[in-house]
Design brief:
Layout (H helix, E strand, L loop, with lengths): L12 H24 L19 E5 L33 E5 L9 H7 L4 E6 L1 H14 L6 E2 L12 E6 L4 E7 L4 E5 L11 E8 L1 H4 L7 E5 L8 E5 L2 E6 L10 H16 L6 E5 L25 H5 L4 H25 L4 E5 L2 H5 L7 E6 L2 E5 L10 H23 L1
Parallel strand pairs: 3-6, 3-9, 8-10, 9-12, 12-13
Antiparallel strand pairs: 1-2, 4-5, 5-6, 7-8, 10-11, 14-15
Subcellular location: Membrane
Organism: Clitoria ternatea
Pfam family, one: PMR5N
Length: 408
C-alpha cells in the first residue's frame, strides 16, 4: 500500500490569501475613496446604487464648453466672467469625473425629449438662478427659450421669470424664495446683507408653495441667506435668533427647520405628482477676509488635496451639508411611511464645488460700472454646468427605473 502523499504546508495558504484579498479589496478601495472626500454622502440613494456620481475629481478636458458668452444670451452680466474681462481660460478646461464611471455629457435634445410637454421650477435663492441660466444656455444650443414672463408678472421682476420652449412645449421658471419659508425683511428691497430678517419656520413661503401643484419637476436650492441676522418664529412665538444680542455665531436651527417645512409642504401639496430635487449647498471661497472685509478668490486652478484639507469654510459647509442630508433622509422616510406617490432625488454638488475656488467671478463681477468680488456665484460657462449634467443623469436614471417598474 502506497503511503499517501503529504500535502505541502503552503498549499492552503495561497487560496486563503487570495480569498482575503478578494473580500477586502472592495472595502479598501471604498475606504480610500471615502477618505478623500471632505463631505461624503453617507446615504445610499436611488441615484448612487449603480454609480456614485457625486464622488470624484476634476480632470482635464481640452474641448470647448457647450456655449460661450457670445452664443448664449441668457447670462447675467454679474456672472459673465469672460465678457467682464477675465483673462484666463483654464477654469473652462475641466470636467467632473466620478471615481467609478463616466458622467455623460449634457445632451440638450435628450433633455428636451424627457421634459416634452412638462414644466420645471427652480425654487430658492440665486444659486438656483445660477443653475437655471446654465440650463437655458445648454437648451439654447438646440432650441431657443422664449421669455414669457410678461404673461405672469412684470418684465422687470427679476425674482420670478418664465421661459417657454415651443418646439417641446416645455416651461421652466425661477421662483425666488431665499429661505423657503415665510420671511419678513426689515429692508424693503431685501438686498441688504445686514438687515434683520424674521423667519416663520413653521410657515412655508406661499410665493412658491401656491404655484407648484402642477409642476412636473421642482428643484430646491437655498443656503446663502441663512448667514444673516435672523429671528426665528414658530407658532407665533420667538424660538431663537442668529447674530443677535451681540452674538456672532451661527444658529443652524433655522436652516434645519426651513428645509423640514419645505419638504413637508411639497410632500403634502394636494395633487402634486411631480419629482422634487434637492441641490446641496454650494460653497463660497472668500480668502483673506469675508466679502465685506476685502476678501478675494483669485485662484485659477482647483484646490489640491492639501489645500482642500485646510479649506477655510470647511466646518460651516460640513454643518449645513449634514443638515440637508439628514432632512433629505427624513423626508424620504416620511413619504414611505405615508405611502405617498412622492419622489425626492439628490443632486449632491457640495464636494465637487468645494474643489473649485477658481470657478467664481471673483473681481470680474460687474454691477453697473462697479466691479466687486464675488466668490459665491459661478461663472457661465463654468463648473455650474456640471449641476445640469448631474440633473439629466438623475432624471434619466429615474425614468429608466420607473419604466422597469411599470413593465414588471
Amino acid at each position: 500500500m502506497h503511503k499517501p502523499r503529504s500535502i505541502p504546508k503552503g498549499a492552503f495558504l495561497l487560496p486563503l490569501t487570495l480569498l482575503v484579498i478578494v473580500l477586502l479589496l472592495p472595502l479598501f478601495r471604498n475606504f480610500i475613496q471615502s477618505s478623500s472626500k471632505i463631505y461624503a454622502t453617507n446615504l445610499e440613494t436611488k441615484e448612487t446604487r449603480s454609480c456614485n456620481i457625486f464622488s470624484g475629481n476634476w480632470s482635464s478636458y481640452p474641448k470647448e464648453p457647450y456655449y460661450n458668452n457670445e452664443t448664449c444670451p441668457f447670462i447675467l452680466n454679474q456672472i459673465n466672467c469672460i465678457k467682464s474681462g477675465r483673462p484666463d481660460r483654464d477654469f473652462l478646461k475641466l470636467r467632473w469625473k466620478p471615481h467609478d464611471c463616466e458622467l455623460p455629457l449634457f445632451n440638450a435634445t435628450q433633455f428636451l425629449e424627457l421634459v416634452r410637454g412638462k414644466s420645471m421650477a427652480f425654487v430658492g435663492d440665486s444659486m438656483g438662478r445660477n443653475q437655471l441660466e446654465s440650463l437655458l444656455c445648454l437648451i439654447n444650443t438646440v432650441a431657443h427659450p422664449e421669455d414669457i414672463t410678461a404673461k405672469y408678472t412684470s418684465n422687470d421682476d427679476i425674482f420670478f421669470r418664465w421661459w417657454f420652449i415651443a418646439d417641446y412645449n416645455f416651461t421652466v421658471t425661477i421662483m425666488w424664495s431665499p429661505f423657503l419659508v415665510k420671511y419678513n425683511d426689515s429692508d424693503a428691497s431685501g438686498l441688504a446683507y445686514y438687515s434683520a430678517t424674521t423667519l416663520y419656520l413653521d410657515e412655508v413661503d406661499a410665493a412658491w408653495a401656491s404655484k407648484i401643484e402642477n409642476f412636473d419637476y421642482v428643484i430646491f436650492s437655498a443656503g446663502q441667506w441663512f448667514f444673516r441676522p435672523l429671528t426665528f418664529y414658530e407658532n407665533g412665538q420667538v424660538v431663537g435668533c442668529q447674530k443677535c444680542q451681540n452674538k456672532t455665531e451661527l444658529n443652524y436651527y433655522g436652516y434645519r427647520k426651513a428645509f423640514r417645512t419645505a419638504f413637508r409642504t411639497i410632500r403634502n401639496v394636494k395633487g402634486f405628482k411631480g419629482k422634487a430635487f434637492l441641490v446641496t449647498h454650494s460653497p463660497g471661497h472668500f480668502e483673506n477676509g469675508d466679502w465685506n472685509e476685502g476678501g478675494t478668490c483669485n485662484r485659477t486652478r482647483p484646490f489640491s488635496m492639501e489645500e482642500r484639507k485646510v479649506y477655510k469654510h470647511r466646518d460651516i459647509v460640513e454643518a449645513v451639508y449634514q443638515i440637508q442630508m439628514e432632512e433629505f433622509a427624513e423626508a424620504e422616510k416620511e413619504a414611505r411611511k405615508e405611502g405617498l406617490n412622492f419622489g425626492l432625488s439628490l443632486i449632491d454638488i457640495t464636494d465637487a464645488m468645494v474643489m473649485r475656488p477658481d470657478g467664481h467671478p471673483g473681481r470680474y463681477r460687474s454691477v453697473g460700472n462697479v466691479k466687486i468680488n464675488d466668490c459665491v456665484h459661478w461663472c457661465l460657462p463654468g463648473p455650474v454646468d456640471t449641476w445640469n449634467e448631474i440633473l439629466l443623469y438623475v432624471m434619466r436614471l429615474e425614468g429608466e427605473k420607473h419604466k422597469n417598474v411599470t413593465l414588471s
